[in-house]
């Protein structure tokens, strides 16, 4: 049976037996938190457990590497909407050790695309159109630097409120240990102290 077949079969029983009632909540995050994290399969249940989160506690946005790569892309839009429309008051960017984006090279991704049947012509067309495939498909060297960069991109966004803390963390995908890379409350306190001196 295919994955989708098994999913649909499970879903019919899930709905018929009303198992969904254990997960009822609202669209507003109870802990007023929005999290950007990686799509890594190891984090699906580990991350919420390691943070003490239950269904309904946080808005969770996932992508490869927990990276904000463009200030006006869908990740940043989702973070802003979580704050302005869904009552989130803190942001956490959570990367992880052993991430597939670490040391990722665009050439490897493009070779894999060709093996899947993507014609070389498509790749050339994107390059001629000005798409920086090397930049877009290349990962990072150090997860801590990548997390700090995403935190900075969020905080620097012209529509991001200066009063909202943005924390940066790294989780170990085996143990769930969280390491704080950027303490958003500490950053806000320093900024407020600097403003008081002016």
Report a brief summary of the structure:
The chain has 198 residues and is of the alpha/beta class. The chain has 8 helices and 5 strands, in the order αβαβαβααααββα.
Shape: globular
CATH domain fold name of the largest domain: Beta-carbonic Anhydrase, Chain A
CATH superfamily of the largest domain: Carbonic anhydrase
**In whole angstroms, how far apart are the ends?**
66 Å
Structure summary, number of beta strands: 5
Helical content band: 40-55%
Care to describe what's here?
The chain is about 45% helix and about 15% strand. It has about 200 residues and is an alpha/beta fold. It folds into two domains: about 5-105 and about 145-195, Carbonic anhydrase (Beta-carbonic Anhydrase, Chain A, 3-Layer(aba) Sandwich), CATH 3.40.1050.10; about 105-140, no CATH class. Strands 2-1-3-4-5 form a five-stranded mixed β-sheet, sandwiched between helices. It is globular and about 60 Å long.
SSE topology:
Elements: H1 3-16, E1 33-38, H2 43-51, E2 58-63, H3 74-84, E3 90-96, H4 106-115, H5 120-128, H6 133-136, H7 143-156, E4 166-171, E5 178-182, H8 184-197
Parallel strand pairs: 1-2, 1-3, 3-4
Antiparallel strand pairs: 4-5
Main features:
5 strands; 2 domains; 8 helices; 5-stranded mixed beta sheet; alpha/beta; 15% strand; Beta-carbonic Anhydrase, Chain A; 43% helix
